[in-house]
Design goal:
The chain is an alpha/beta fold. It has helices at 3-15, 52-64, 80-88, 111-125, 140-148, 151-160, 175-182, 204-213, 234-242, 249-258, 273-284, 293-309, 329-341, 348-356, 369-373, 380-392; strands at 22-25, 30-33, 35-38, 69-71, 98-103, 130-138, 164-171, 189-193, 217-221, 263-269.
Length: 393
């Protein structure tokens, strides 16, 4: 977010009384803030590890200002996110939030692994239960594996023992797979990717509406498309500025989501205190009024502008990392897409820097390990070679 945007929302923060937008989770009878704290991008120190003092201060400030939803997962920050969240939720903070974490399905080889991993997570989180417990990053194949290992029996046991309160899943696959999983179990929540660019991608808006019809609460991830929507190209920024109502690009991105009636909570992976302040200000003045026709037109124009120029649609999630040959796939894809969005943009210089770090596409041996991990199902090897050819030409 640029400085002028920050000043804009901070003025609102200073002048307003903090009353964050909140909604009840259907079928669960728990109220959640529309802004959720995603703990996958916590602030880092110079050593590349989580800056614990800053992360804990941010999580507690969020809760003190009305955030009641905290999201983490087993693999975030190499397993350290859950441990830091556990520290942040001491001193009475745990009782004030809905706490979600996720079962790393890819690490589950036997039925007993599920309870063993959950117990490990509860220990790291320093709690006797989590509220929502999700099967992490489901796709059709992974869900079948979980069924074969009897995840339903696991949920039954974990619920009976009070270690989890509500089962759910997070999702990265296509719409038919989403509908099949959604109808296959009495889920209490689903976490899906949605943002201005992804209305017809993965679960899609129709999937979100179906979850609403079934009374399953929807939590949103990737609301800013890996930060892409927070730093729009010049023509998109001009379109926002020409609109009658003035909002920052981040506020426009969140507004697209919190006006969807099925959406209960939107996760934001906050890395610095300024982002938290900005988000608090946005959700303090947010309301669930419907989008106007002119707002819908604006979102359609913005989406078309982005999608007509992007190539990879990589979100930068880094699930494809580490590559055995050290290829920095997210840096290459996101740098390339961002260069396409800039007028006259060129990625040769950025690619050259990555090559100097010996992390460029020339090192790829096409083992396709990355493609098996990519939740967006991107043809990574082909894209790498095409970008390499262009940048080395
Ligand atoms: S296919 Fe290439 S980029 Fe992907 S993991 Fe293998 S070596 Fe790395
Ligand atoms: S290539 Fe796929 S897995 Fe890797 S960062 Fe991009 S979206 Fe994530």
């Amino acid at each position: 977010m640029v400085l002028s945007d920050r000043l804009h929302v901070r003025t609102i923060l200073l002048n307003g009384v903090m009353t964050l937008l909140k909604t009840m989770f259907p079928g669960v009878n728990r109220e959640s803030s529309a802004l959720g704290f995603g703990c996958m991008r916590l602030p880092l120190g110079e050593d590349g590890k989580i800056n614990e003092a800053e992360a804990i201060a941010m999580i507690r400030k969020a809760i003190d200002n009305g955030v009641t939803y905290i999201d983490t997962a087993y693999p975030y920050h190499g397993g350290e996110s859950e441990r830091v969240v556990g520290k942040a939720l001491k001193d009475g903070y745990r009782e004030r939030v809905i706490l979600t974490t996720k079962l790393p399905c890819w690490a589950v080889k036997t039925h007993d692994d599920m309870m063993r991993i959950l117990d490990e997570q509860l220990e790291k989180l320093q709690t006797d239960h989590v509220d929502f417990y999700l099967l992490h990053a489901l796709n059709a194949g992974r869900y079948q594996e979980m069924k074969n290992l009897d995840h339903m029996g696991f949920f039954e046991d974990a619920l009976a023992q009070g270690k989890i309160l509500y089962p759910g899943f997070s999702f990265h696959d296509d719409h038919p797979a989403f509908i099949e999983i959604l109808h296959d179990y009495p889920w209490k929540m689903c976490q899906v990717q949605m943002n201005v660019l992804d209305g017809d991608y993965q679960a899609g808006i129709e999937g979100i509406q179906e979850a609403g019809r079934l009374g399953i609460g929807v939590v949103i991830m990737e609301p800013l498309r890996g930060g892409l929507l927070a730093q729009p190209p010049a023509d998109v920024r001009a379109a926002y500025e020409a609109f009658a109502e003035q909002r920052s690009p981040v506020e426009w991105a969140f507004r697209y989501l919190y006006t969807m009636p099925e959406v209960i909570t939107i996760l934001s992976g906050m890395s610095e205190m300024g982002q938290l302040d900005d988000n608090l200000a946005i959700f303090n003045k947010a309301s669930r009024d419907e989008l106007t026709d002119s707002e819908k037109e604006l979102y359609t124009d913005i989406k078309n502008t982005y999608l007509s120029r992007m190539k990879t649609r990589c979100t930068g999630c880094a699930y494809c990392q580490p590559c055995p040959k050290g290829v920095k796939i997210p840096d290459i894809f996101r740098g390339y897409d961002r260069s396409l969005l800039r007028e006259g943009g060129c990625f040769k210089e950025g690619y050259g820097k990555i090559a100097a770090e010996q992390a460029d596409a020339s090192r790829c041996i096409a083992c396709r390990k990355c493609e098996r991990s990519c939740p967006q199902h991107l043809p990574i090897v082909r894209y790498l070679q095409e970008i390499r050819a262009e940048c080395e030409a």
